[in-house]
């Protein structure tokens, strides 16, 4: 039996004060790869923000990587996020630091202090995304796809139990999107659980997996051909 990583029961997701998704029931097991699709404004990002505690869960029951989203204290949020890897559409790399220093900054911020251990970890995650030779490059010297690979490496630094990828290919051209997806699928095949919000249906066809759709205030599983 795979371990449950995420469980939502009768949850309502709010956008500001307005309910945008209701009666959300979701069970995510260790090793799953799940797409979340839907039109802009359908609730995809609000769902993701609820999962990484940027939005409060006020209705229904939710647990994620052994944290209760209903009773989560402000002081718990940094610890929750260490067990999650979050990848955004716009990379969010620090522009004044090179690739190595971007990753070292995150390690230091999450409690690492041994220089040698940090170096080993940085090389390990950059190797996983094919960016090991780029440690001295500044973000502006990288293509969009390369920046997103670094962002994925950053998400892997603390060996997260779950990766939340919110439109990770949204700013990339089709070929680069495929390359980034290949990185994510490889990470998933190595045992990481991934939930990915996307509007890129071409990727769903090329890399089919369980798909949830946000529509008309509901979220439901869809068979691939009807997305």
From TrEMBL:
One of its GO terms (molecular function) is ATP hydrolysis activity. Residues 6-227 form the ABC transporter domain. GO terms for cellular component: plasma membrane. InterPro entries: AAA+_ATPase (IPR003593), ABC_transporter-like_ATP-bd (IPR003439), ABC_transporter-like_CS (IPR017871), ABC_transpr_LolD-like (IPR015854), MacB-like_ATP-bd (IPR017911), P-loop_NTPase (IPR027417). The keyword Thylakoid does not apply. It comes from the Bacteria. The keyword Cytoplasm does not apply. GO terms for biological process: cell division. Keywords: ATP-binding, Cell cycle, Cell division, Nucleotide-binding, Transport. Belongs to the ABC transporter superfamily. Part of the ABC transporter FtsEX involved in cellular division. Important for assembly or stability of the septal ring. This is Cell division ATP-binding protein FtsE. The lineage of its organism: Bacteria, Pseudomonadati, Bacteroidota, Flavobacteriia, Flavobacteriales.
């Amino acid at each position: 039996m795979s371990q449950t990583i995420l469980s939502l029961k009768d949850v309502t997701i709010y956008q500001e004060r307005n309910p945008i998704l209701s009666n959300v029931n979701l069970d995510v097991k260790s090793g799953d790869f799940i797409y979340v699709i839907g039109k802009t404004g359908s609730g995809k990002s609000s769902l993701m923000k609820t999962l990484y505690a940027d939005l409060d869960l006020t209705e229904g029951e939710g647990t994620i990587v052994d944290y209760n989203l209903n009773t989560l204290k402000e002081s718990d949020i940094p610890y929750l996020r260490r067990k999650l890897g979050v990848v955004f559409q716009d990379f969010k790399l620090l522009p004044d630091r090179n690739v190595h220093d971007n990753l070292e900054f995150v390690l230091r911020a999450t409690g690492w202090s041994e220089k040698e251990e940090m170096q080993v970890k940085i090389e390990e995650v950059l190797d996983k995304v094919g960016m090991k030779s780029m440690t001295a490059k500044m973000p502006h010297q990288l293509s969009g796809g390369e920046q997103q690979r670094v962002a994925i490496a950053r998400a892997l630094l603390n060996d997260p139990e779950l990766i939340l990828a919110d439109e990770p290919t949204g700013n990339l051209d089709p070929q680069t999107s495929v390359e980034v997806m290949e990185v994510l699928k490889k990470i998933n095949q190595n045992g990481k659980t991934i939930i990915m919000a996307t509007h890129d249906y071409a990727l769903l066809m090329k890399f089919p997996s369980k798909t949830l759709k946000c529509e008309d205030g509901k979220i439901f599983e869809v068979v691939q051909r009807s997305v």
